[in-house]
Design goal:
The complex is a heterodimer.
Chain A: H1 3-30, E1 40-41, H2 44-56, H3 66-71, E2 76-77, H4 92-125
Antiparallel strand pairs in A: 1-2
Helix pairs in contact in A: 1-2, 1-4
Chain B: H1 2-29, E1 45-53, E2 60-69, E3 75-78, E4 90-93, H2 98-130
Classes of the chains: A mainly alpha, B alpha+beta.
């Protein structure tokens, strides 16, 4: 792994986990009216740590590649604030706010990557 | 890529919600249809949603698996002048509950809006991702 790869690696991982979480929350919102559906989410910090640990220690990486660690992480169920009769545990207010928050964090991470790239270009070009 | 499957997930929800809206429209339109091609009064229909895992990854879309008939008893209205009235002067009307259907309609259209917004956000994020380093 070159120095440049190492530099961008963290941002790449963070973006991946953010995109993954975004997709989970989208699934929750899409199933807001599905009977028996339970809202799911991940612990962002824990997953990021897991994925990074798997990258630094190659022996922990499963054979199916980098994505498997990300998608193989344990999904958590969101705790229920108000129970519904049909067994659905999606609270649209929570999901929408989490979706918006995650989108902002994703965009922030994109900005960080861009400025990292600009800094590196400035260092190379002088 | 995860962000692309948001479009699939939200798309499946849009389809499902519009089908629910369609069923509600059909119920409301036929709230007073005392007869139909079968000779029986119209019966309210409801859609059944179920979670549908997408082929790639953990994303879960939604799908309408069934359209079921509401089996609650039909409304009996006293109207002796109605051509379909029986000997006691009662007409059998559809079992559509208009208030329930209106609530269903509002709920479906709100869900549709939310999912359309979801798609917009995902699209914005994807476009921003394309601009990395610019």
């Amino acid at each position: 792994m070159t120095r440049l790869d190492e530099l961008f690696n963290f941002s790449q991982t963070a973006l991946k986990v953010h995109a993954y979480r975004q997709q989970l929350i989208a699934s929750n919102i899409a199933n807001a009216d599905t009977p028996g559906y339970k809202a799911r989410d991940i612990d962002f910090a824990a997953v990021l740590k897991d994925v990074q640990a798997a990258q630094t220690k190659p022996q922990l990486q499963p054979a199916s590649g980098q994505d498997a660690t990300l998608f193989g992480t344990e999904l958590l169920y969101r705790s229920v604030v108000q129970r519904s009769v049909d067994g659905n545990s999606v609270d649209l207010d929570i999901e929408r706010s989490q979706f918006a928050e995650n989108a902002v964090r994703y965009e922030a991470q994109l900005t960080f990557v861009s400025s990292q790239i600009k800094a590196m270009l400035a260092a190379i070009q002088g | 890529m995860s962000l692309f499957s948001i479009l699939d997930v939200a798309g499946s929800a849009l389809t499902a919600q519009s089908q629910r809206l369609n069923t509600t429209a059909s119920n409301l339109a036929n709230a007073d249809s005392a007869t139909s091609s079968t000779g029986q009064p119209y019966r309210a229909k409801q859609v059944v949603f179920s979670a549908q895992p997408l082929p790639n990854g953990e994303a879960v879309g939604v799908r309408v698996t069934d359209v079921v008939q509401d089996n609650s008893p039909p409304r009996r209205v006293h109207d002796p002048r109605h051509p379909l009235a029986d000997e006691q002067g009662y007409v059998t009307m559809p079992n559509v509950n208009v208030v329930e259907e209106m609530v269903n309609m509002i709920s479906a259209s709100r869900s549709y809006q939310t999912n359309a917004e979801l798609m917009n956000t995902a699209k914005t994020l994807l476009l921003k991702t394309l601009q990395i380093g610019q």
